[in-house]
């Protein structure tokens, strides 16, 4: 019976049950039910088991990813803290180096000033010493010339000791007159 005939017979309402093959319907229902039971036991159960395992695997991977993300965030914060600490230490080192440089510069300047003062004092002492030597040389030359002049004026030779005493006395008087 074709579908068209079935529709016509149903619309006519006359003996539709006579034309349906109830044996075939019952056999089809029995085999469909048997197929569903077998599918549930051998296909649906293992398939659902695999799906549950897959769901558990995905859930565990999500948990691991979340843990990894949290650990990465923690490590990132630690790295930032270490970087901040390193910057602070570097800044302290630079500041310390500046302070040491300033202290060394001040020390070098003080040493240079002290050395310059010492050199001035030495130079002044040496100048005074050279001046004293020059004055002494001029005195001796003056004494010698005075003795020669006195000898010529007097026409006789005066003892060197007398001349020297006389000249020293004259130099003293001349020095007091300054």
UniProtKB/TrEMBL annotation:
<protein>
    <recommendedName>
        <fullName>ATP synthase subunit b</fullName>
    </recommendedName>
</protein>
<dbReference type="Pfam" id="PF00430">
    <property type="entry name" value="ATP-synt_B"/>
</dbReference>
<feature type="transmembrane region" description="Helical">
    <location>
        <begin position="25"/>
        <end position="44"/>
    </location>
</feature>
<dbReference type="InterPro" id="IPR005864">
    <property type="entry name" value="ATP_synth_F0_bsu_bac"/>
</dbReference>
<dbReference type="GO" id="GO:0045259">
    <property type="term" value="C:proton-transporting ATP synthase complex"/>
</dbReference>
<comment type="subunit">
    <text>F-type ATPases have 2 components, F(1) - the catalytic core - and F(0) - the membrane proton channel. F(1) has five subunits: alpha(3), beta(3), gamma(1), delta(1), epsilon(1). F(0) has three main subunits: a(1), b(2) and c(10-14). The alpha and beta chains form an alternating ring which encloses part of the gamma chain. F(1) is attached to F(0) by a central stalk formed by the gamma and epsilon chains, while a peripheral stalk is formed by the delta and b chains.</text>
</comment>
<dbReference type="GO" id="GO:0005886">
    <property type="term" value="C:plasma membrane"/>
</dbReference>
<comment type="function">
    <text>Component of the F(0) channel, it forms part of the peripheral stalk, linking F(1) to F(0).</text>
</comment>
<keyword id="KW-0175">Coiled coil</keyword>
<keyword id="KW-1133">Transmembrane helix</keyword>
<keyword id="KW-0472">Membrane</keyword>
<keyword id="KW-1003">Cell membrane</keyword>
<dbReference type="GO" id="GO:0046933">
    <property type="term" value="F:proton-transporting ATP synthase activity, rotational mechanism"/>
</dbReference>
<dbReference type="GO" id="GO:0046961">
    <property type="term" value="F:proton-transporting ATPase activity, rotational mechanism"/>
</dbReference>
<keyword id="KW-0375">Hydrogen ion transport</keyword>
<keyword id="KW-0138">CF(0)</keyword>
<dbReference type="InterPro" id="IPR050059">
    <property type="entry name" value="ATP_synthase_B_chain"/>
</dbReference>
<keyword id="KW-0066">ATP synthesis</keyword>
<dbReference type="InterPro" id="IPR028987">
    <property type="entry name" value="ATP_synth_B-like_membr_sf"/>
</dbReference>
<feature type="coiled-coil region">
    <location>
        <begin position="62"/>
        <end position="140"/>
    </location>
</feature>
<keyword id="KW-0813">Transport</keyword>
<keyword id="KW-0812">Transmembrane</keyword>
<comment type="function">
    <text>F(1)F(0) ATP synthase produces ATP from ADP in the presence of a proton or sodium gradient. F-type ATPases consist of two structural domains, F(1) containing the extramembraneous catalytic core and F(0) containing the membrane proton channel, linked together by a central stalk and a peripheral stalk. During catalysis, ATP synthesis in the catalytic domain of F(1) is coupled via a rotary mechanism of the central stalk subunits to proton translocation.</text>
</comment>
<comment type="similarity">
    <text>Belongs to the ATPase B chain family.</text>
</comment>
<dbReference type="InterPro" id="IPR002146">
    <property type="entry name" value="ATP_synth_b/b'su_bac/chlpt"/>
</dbReference>
<dbReference type="GO" id="GO:0012505">
    <property type="term" value="C:endomembrane system"/>
</dbReference>
<keyword id="KW-0406">Ion transport</keyword>
